[in-house]
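Model: You mentioned two targets. I'll fold them one after the other.
Researcher: Yes, keep them separate.
Model: Target one:
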Amino acid sequence: MPAHRLPPGKAKATGAAIKNAARFKARSDPKGAALGGAPMHLPLHAKRAWERFRAELPWLTASDAALLEVAALVRGELLAGLPVGVTKLSMYQAVLGKLGASPVDKSKVAMPDDDEEEEDEFFGNC
């Protein structure tokens, strides 16, 4: 089975982008607003989990907040010592994958940078 792809943000944070610069040259994370703090409606342990995710996954943005809420709720239950069923753990694993915390789906998203202008075939740069 092939190795999972690292998202560019994680590669920069871990130093893999420096070690294998050519591998990460064409990859880019979508631009977005900063993640921000935990929502007020989350329980205390889920807020702590949110802050841990912010530290562990620095590439997360505001567009990841909905999925991160789900992950923080489950991780909060784990931190509180509450029993978590197999179904929740399976869903937790899937959400972590979508956030780029394990099998990395986020690195497969390729969006153009906002700064780059696209050259039109007939009109050049507009």
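Model: Target two:
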Amino acid sequence: MSAYSGNLGRVHDLEPVLAIADALRTEPRFVFVFVGGGAQRQALEDVAVSRGLTNVQFRPAQPRARLAESLALGDAHLVTLLPGCERYVFPSKLYGIAAVGRPVVFIGPRDCELARLVTGRDLGVAHERSQTTAIASSLRALADDPTRRARHAAAAQKFSAESGGADAAAARWDALFLPVRAC
């Protein structure tokens, strides 16, 4: 199961996920589960229904207390970022995914910090939004290779331990803006 958990908001590039689901529709081992809500949810649901994507499911946001349990259900997690937003947004969902030790499939600009982090730390793979065939192939490769999944999982957990998780990242982010707020 490929999961996308969190905000289905305006900076998240989710149309390619539906294209990938369409490409993998005849392979029953692939199910795409969106967990959460946001500005794009209804439009995504409408497109999934209109295309007859029975391998796409939508679930409500989960309470924070159940986040780790919810994230652990995915075999691989999709993290997306709309091109042009990479200088302003860093999807914090990466920290939760890393904490539960799941491979990451990043869909977004290849030259952004997030893509470099995913590939440089061996958390998973990174592709641009136009590479739907390559992304589908990456998902097949992950599904077919338990050793590779375990390697990405171990790298994710190591990254989580070293980074201190989302709370530590938020504290670092907040510290960047302390001088600005003091003005």
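Researcher: Noted. Anything on target two?
Model: The chain has eight helices and six strands.
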